[in-house]
Amino acid sequence: MYSLLIIDDEQYALDGMVEGIDWEGIGITRVWTALNVNDARKLLVSQSVDVVLVDIEMPGENGLSFLEWLNQQGLRIKSIVLTGHARFDYAQQAMKAGGQDYMLKPVDLEELKQAVLKAIVSLQTEREYEQFEQLYESYKQMWKVERPLLVERFWCNVIDNRISPTAAQLNTAFTSYGIPLTGNDSVIPILISVEFWHKELNAQDEEIMEYALKKAAEEIVLQEEDGDVIRDGTGILLLLVYQSANKPFRSQEWRARCEAYIRSCNEYFHCDLSCYLGCSIPLSELPTEYKQLLAVERNNLQHMNAVLSTESLGERALNTRNVVPSVVEWIPLLEMNKEREVLGKLDNYLSQMEAEGGGSDALETLYFGVVYMLLSVQVKKGLSTQMLMNLISEQNKAIRSVERFRQWAQRAVKVSIQLRNAEGLITEPYSDIVLHSMAFIHAHFAEDINRGIIANSVFINPAYLSRLFRKETGKTLTEYVQSVRMDHARTLLDNDGKSVSEASLQSGFPNLPYFSKVFKQYYGVTPQEYRTKRIR
């Protein structure tokens, strides 16, 4: 509701205006009076007033100077000026000073009531507009916060082909999300792949660091250019540079920016990463270009902290006439887990094939021979062949080049041995890459292993393996290694009667204080306390 202040040096006039009108009927719940300007000022220090009725002619300071004072104080009060003289200059000064209305005395009470009601309506309208402005501003701030998520979701839908990238649909989305593009413009996709963290990070720490990488990419790579950095559905960072259709693609400049970004990330964020630079392409080609960049990243097993493109990892055609060796002779070696000997024989043959010029027919025949060897050993040991099926299904990838085949065969032999060593430890329905990684971890957890070493064991890019492992298991590779080590440490303390220092070393913790810290995080007690309770 509203309050009213009446200022007049004549007491009878004050009484008449206070008592002659039903103020509550128009929303006025409190009426204040003052006989002069000084009293009015004192009252305004302690009371909130919405509408003022002020007489111009008063002893001392007059009503016009009071209106000017209200303006100087920034008090948003509606004012109605009363005067006994019909002078134009008075009316002009009153309106200039912010007066809402100008009325001659003696005042008709009904007209005065309507004038105050008009002031209240005006005040109410202004306050509603202010509330709308505040609400709009709050929604605007919320939109600014939500915009990156909306933009990210939009681009993920585009690259996953869930949105048809027609010009009309894109223009609508660009307007909604504030993206400075039209449906006929272009983008430059740059895939950012973290290969290795030099400090151990849990899942939350990785998210925080990836946010830092995202902001750094905006500052170092994008700079003054329009664009956004998003995270796709698998967790990989993708920088999209927005380009007008006729703007030239400055390949060397973008390569230089990516190189500067990599150096900064090496220095400040303690990680190794590579950037996969796409071309300036129409929006309709973005899904295809993105998949090509992912393929380059996945197949990059040699380059680290590099800027690569879709032409970076070319493949050589094969055309050989070699005679395939008898892999039956290799089966006994594989049964005895003679990994080095098996791979040595295989490598010798492949090196000869490379020297003489490739041959797709011979390579395909060799592929089936290696598959026969893998399955024969698995069946002979009475073990399931299911975990090898996905690996065996990679025929098309394996026979595309001699080097591809070498990588596939090395991985296949290693996985065969690891699966037999870890049989029964892993039962969840994970992909073959994750299963093979788990098998490697179970076999080597007591050693100094990290994400890069695990990825090398399955011949997969570390960043790709990290995303896949976390997606399927809900844990980072570091967290999984820690859990395997902790399970083993507890087993040693439970059943083998090992000392704490022995359990620490045999579980992959050469640092005893760190072992105690991690053990307490897992089990709520130190290893010494745990062992004491078990002995009792």
Automatic annotation (TrEMBL):
Residues 3-120 form the Response regulatory domain. Keywords: DNA-binding, Phosphoprotein, Transcription, Transcription regulation. Residues 435-533 form the HTH araC/xylS-type domain. Pfam families: HTH_18 (PF12833), Response_reg (PF00072). The modification 4-aspartylphosphate is found at residue 55. InterPro entries: CheY-like_superfamily (IPR011006), Homeodomain-like_sf (IPR009057), HTH_AraC (IPR018060), HTH_AraC-typ_CS (IPR018062), Sig_transdc_resp-reg_receiver (IPR001789), Tscrpt_reg_AraC-type_HTH (IPR020449). Gene3D superfamilies: 3.40.50.2300, Homeodomain-like. SUPFAM superfamilies: CheY-like (SSF52172), Homeodomain-like (SSF46689). This is Helix-turn-helix domain-containing protein.
